[in-house]
Write a structure and sequence with these properties.
alpha/beta; 7 helices; 4 strands
């Protein structure tokens, strides 16, 4: 399912119980961590893609996601998303890597995941949040490197 983006680094940032006001600082810390990992060739090897998964649509445009999800976003959430997106933009510290999201991977016609060649769309409704979450977890498990929340910046299990 992820062979076209292998090897990749997966980030899972679960922030539903994190105070919104700390999210920008946490996003900066995440970018710093990714910068250290990805620039260390002994760790990152040939990683070219960073797959980002969160319980909030931090990296999606304001027009995407459900209306309820967009209403839950504060200015702090938006700022955190901007910090992460900017790091991967031209002249950002992570500009040499591609930032990919769950919605981007599952979008029709992207060819990245190519689920239609593996699973009949009628058998697996990708618009179901539970299915999408399970697939996101599988994508995280198949990553060459995995980064999750740190204390104070998200849920730790």
């Amino acid at each position: 399912m992820t062979k076209d983006i292998q090897p990749y680094l997966a980030v899972h940032w679960h922030i539903d119980k994190t105070p919104a006001e700390v999210l920008p600082a946490c996003a900066d810390a995440l970018v710093d961590t990714l910068d250290i990992l990805l620039h260390d060739h002994s760790v990152a090897h040939d990683i070219r893609t960073v797959y980002f998964s969160s319980d909030y649509p931090l990296l999606e445009p304001a027009t995407s996601g459900t209306e309820l999800a967009q209403q839950r976003l504060s200015d702090f959430h938006r700022e955190a998303g901007k910090i992460i997106r900017t790091a991967f933009a031209p002249s950002g510290e992570l500009e040499h890597w591609t930032l990919e999201t769950r919605d981007g991977l599952f979008a029709e016609g992207t060819g990245i995941v190519a689920l239609s060649s593996v699973i009949d769309e009628d058998q697996l409704p990708l618009d179901d949040a539970g299915i999408r979450d399970m697939l996101a977890r599988i994508i995280g498990m198949n990553a060459a490197l995995f980064v999750s929340s740190t204390k104070g910046c998200g849920r730790i299990r």
